[in-house]
Every structure is written in C-alpha cells, then in structure tokens.
Design brief:
mainly alpha, 5 helical Cullin repeat like, five-stranded mixed β-sheet, two-stranded parallel sheet, 27 helices, 55% helix, 5% strand, Cullin_N, Cullin, Cullin_homology_sf, Cullin 4A, ubiquitin protein ligase binding
Length: 712
Amino acid sequence: MADETPRKGSFSALVGHTNGLTKPASLAAAAVTSKPGGSGGSKKLVIKNFRDRPKLPDNYTQDTWHKLHEAVKAIQSSTSIRYNLEELYQAVENLCSHKVAPTLYQQLREACESHVQAQILQFREYPFLVCTDSLDSVFFLKKINTCWQDHCRQMIMVRSIFLFLDRTYVLQNSLLPSIWDMGLELFRSHVISDRMVQTKTIDGILLLIARERSGEAVDRSLLRGLLGMLSDLQVYKDSFELKFLEETNCLYAAEGQRLMQEREVPEYLNHVSKRLEEEGDRVITYLDHSTQKPLIACVEKQLLGEHLTAILQKGLDHLLDENRVPDLTQMYQLFSRVRGGQQALLQHWSEYIKTFGTTIVINPEKDKDMVQDLLDFKDRVDHVIDVCFQRNEKFINLMKESFEAFINKRPNKPAELIAKHVDSKLRAGNKEATDEELERILDKVMIIFRFIHGKDVFEAFYKKDLAKRLLVGKSASVDAEKSMLSKLKHGKAGGRTPFTLESSCPDLLCSQYMQNQSDPGSIDLTVNILTMGYWPTYTPMDVHLTPEVSVREALCPLLVSGWCCPGITGVPLVTWCRAASPQKALEPTLRENFSLSVVPGKLCLHVPSSLTYCVHQLAVRKALAQPCLPAAVGLPVWLLPHVRCEGPLCPHHLGEEPGARGPAVSVPPEQGAGGRPAVSVSLWRGVAGSCVHVTLVSRDVRAPGRTLGSGP
C-alpha cells in the first residue's frame, strides 16, 4: 500500500539482556522512523513498555507503620516480635521508596522519645534519690547502668530494622542525627540531664572511687559502664571530670601534708610511687583516657611538687651517706616527673658533694688518707650517677664543678698528697695489685688530679719522687712508670712534664756504663751522672764526713781519670745512704732495706754506743750545718739513736716527749768488701753492708744517644 506507514522498531529488541548496571551498546542506537515520502526527514525516538510506578494502597502506609511501631514497642519491652525481621526491613524499604521517609523518621523518633521519657519516672520516684547512704548509692548506680545498657541494646535492634532509612534518607540529610545518635540524644536530654539524677549519679561514682582509694574493693565493671555512659553521652568532662579532679586535688594535698610528717623519705617515696601506679591503673580500667594527663599531674603536684625541698632536706644526705641506690633511683625517677624537680635535686646534690668533700680536704688530721678517701668518694658518686641518675649529663657536669670547688679550698696540699699517693703506688707496683688494677688506680688518681688548680705543685713533687725511684731503684714497674708519664705528657692531666723516661734513661745507662768501667776505690761507691735541666735540683749544703767515707776523696780519682766524660763536673745533687734496719723493735734480728739522705746517715755514723745526744750537741760536735737540723730530726724514731730534743727545736717527729730517754744504738766499725771501709750502720746488732750513692750533675746537656768517650 502506498499510504502504509513504516514499521517501528521494537524497544525490547534493542535493550537485550542487561543487569541494569551497565548500558548495552545496542541501547545507543534508537529506533528510527522516517516521515512518509522522504528518507532524510526528522527522526523520533520511541520507547515502548514504559510504565508508571504502581501506587500504594490507600492504607498501606498506616498499616505498615502500625506493624513497625508494634515491633519497636516489643523491642523496648523486651518481648518477642510477631513479625519476621526481614519482612520488617522490606516494609521500611518500601516506605522509603515511595517518599515516606521523612514521616517515618519522625514517627520513629516520637516512639523512642516517649519510651525514654517513661524511664525517667522510675528514678524520680525512688525514695533513696536524696539519701547519702553508700548502699543506696550503689543500688541507684546499678539501676542507672541497667537502664543505660537496655537502652543501648534496644537502639541497636531498632537501627537494624530501620537500617535502610538510616543509610538513605538520614545519610543524605546532614542536619539529621543517625538513629544511634538520636537514641543518645534522647537519653541525655531526658535522663542524664535531669539535675537530681545527674547529681546522684556523679556523687555515687565519686563515692565508689574514694572508697577504692581508701583500700576497699568496689565493682569496677559498674564504674566502667557508668563512666563509659557519660563519655558516650558527651557529658563526661563537664559533669564528672571537673569534680573528680577537684576531689583528687584535695585528697592528695591533705595526704601529702600528713605523710611528710609521719614517714621517712624512702617510705614516703614508695607511697608516692604506689599512688601514681594506682591512678594509672584507674585510667586503664574505667576512667576515660583524656583524664590521664590532668589526673597524674594533680597527684605529682600535691605529693611531690609541693614537697620537693622538704624531701631533699630531710632525706637526700642520709640516702647518699648510706649509698641506698634503689631509693636514690626512685627519687630521681619521681623528681624527673615534676617540673623543677631535677633542678632542685641538682642543687642539693652539688651541696652534698661540696660539704662531704670539704670534710675530707680541710682536716689536716686526715691528710694520710685524703687521697684514698677522695678516690672512694669519687667511685661512690660515679656509681650513683651511672645507676641512679641514668648518666644524666647535667649531674656529671655539676659533679665535676663541685669536686673542683671543694678540692681547691686547701691550696697545694691535695696536689702534694696526690703526688705522694702516686709514688707509693708505683713503688709497690704489682706487690699490692695486678697491672690492670694498677692502671685503673692511676686513671682514677688522674681524674682527681684534673680538679686541682696547683698542677705545678704536683709536677714538682712528682718529678722529685720519680727521680728518687729511678736512682735508688725503687720503681716496681717500668711499664707503670711509662703509663703514668704518658698520661701527664699527652694532656690527660691538663699539661705536660719535661721530666720523662726518654730523658732519664740515657743518664742511667751512661752512669751504669761508667760504673762498670771504673776500678774499685777505697769504699763501695755508686755514681749517677745526670743531665742538668732534666732532673730536679736541690740546694747544696755543707756536711763534714768522716775520713773513712769521704766522698770527695773517693770522687777525685773518678773526676780526673782518663775515661771521665767531658763536661761533667762534680756538683753533688743527691746523696743517699742505703742500710739495713729492724722491721720491729722487739725482733732485732729482722732487717729491711731503707734509704737515708746523707744527713741522717751521718748522724747514725757519729753516735757512739751507749751515748745520748741532743740535736744541738750533734750539730756542734760534728760540724753539722744548722739548716740541716730539721732534716736530721725527721729521721724515723726507730732508726735514730735516742736523740734528746732541747731548746727551740722540739718537733714531734720523734713521737716522744722532750727529755725522754731510751736505749742507744751501737754503731761498731765495719769493713766493706776487700777490707775497704763501707758506709754501714749496725742497728740492734744488725749489720748493714751497703754503699754510698752520689749523684753528679753535668752542666752541659748531652745530645740524645751520646756515649761516653775514652780519655788519655
């Protein structure tokens, strides 16, 4: 037919099979029809099978809400629900799909609000609401906690039924609270915000916490539930935390004042640690995490911050004196938690070191043990810093300043005694300690030495003692001597000393060479030739020796002999006399070696048997120079023949009263090797076969490594 219209395309054929989420490619091509009489006319898209949304029955909304309301009431009354939960969920979805969601949300809110309003009546009608008895308070708290737990459980069930409403309509409207938040808001506004209920709840919680702090056992799960309720309802900080911190502050302020008067410092510190641990446990168990910082700060302030000075004045010195390391560690840890605590501890720590150290340094009666006491005190202080104060740099630096302050209150004496202490240790060597122990002792001594200002005094005494050890052969360990000199040379003591083993060894080797090359003289003689400027100098003194031991006569052949080194002049520097002596006065047969200077040795030689002299008589009789008298008096009492002190020279070196008498020392003449006279002293029938040590000084400094030349 000419007027037959074109056949329209079928929509169902274009759509094909799809899951509704992806757009099929065939859908892009629409069914196109052309107007009659032309192929290029306007085109029209026709969609078939389009149907409008079916309308709900007239009573569907009311009937569905009635069913949902009945289910909500069953949940709130804890009874069984007549309908299937899936059926209820589908009903909510149908209502939301037909744009009934606003009405449905409002109806649900009204149903929940009416139920919550009914719950407040049970608390208002209770007669114990205004009672302060603890049992009634606990019962009230349990009722509140039960009501809250039931409300949470009910809102979870209601939300599961109205989940489609919560995820679509409520989520798309930011001004509306979710169903869960709506339930919290209703409980807060109608239950907890009630003034009487809130007051009773907060007071009951504080009462339980106070009872627990006093040592009673309480229901912690009840406290955890109630405080969790306050936190969820966002009234924790305003309604509970402020009152809780205020009561905590009052409690510990009174407790701190009372216990500081009743307990000793260690006991008080243990109590503070226990309280801090308890409060930290409360935060973990039932308090909100946000309360931890202000709560701990309150305890620290009232139990520590307010009593820092009192604690330090009352117990720090006692703890340090007794070296109570655990208590000092606890004090440091607690004071580190409080603002200004470490600074206060630092100040009192420094004062203690200065006070204790001053008692060691100032008292002349303790000079004998001063250095050892300082070393022991330094070890104890270092141990406290390492173990108790965690090697805090502030405490280390302040300790050094404090040591430097008190050790220099007595100028020069500590330096002298330190040098003497080093001398005694180097003389003893490995007789008293191993090489490792001796090295540790020297390191400790040098640490003490760094604190003194009179380093030149130490150097003078140390050089003098070192020269004696080397010349007399009293040094027990060459390695120890080198180690000590290395510490001085390389700045460990804050400076360097010009007297070293490198400069002294050539002198000793040359002296030994010359001694071996010489012929035996009239007496046993040992000569050391030293380089001027490398060895300590001494003031010359005039001493008249007996003819048989005249050093001048013995030295003259030596000085003019053909093998004498050029440039060496006979300038006596040090002269020692080595002899034997009894170790104990009651055991005259026992002997030990000792070293004497020439003056005491001369006195021993010139005192005949069974004769007692005063010091002045000895000086006149044997032409002893008057300035030498103090040196003579300094002779040990067991060595000197009994010398009576008269006149102004009456020192206490002898340890006896003036005018006292005792047994004299017999000095019979003795012969050396080969019939030659020797410088010998017989004490308590002990014979001392020994020799004279004479030291000469070369006025010209020899170049290192120069050997002795042979003369004509």
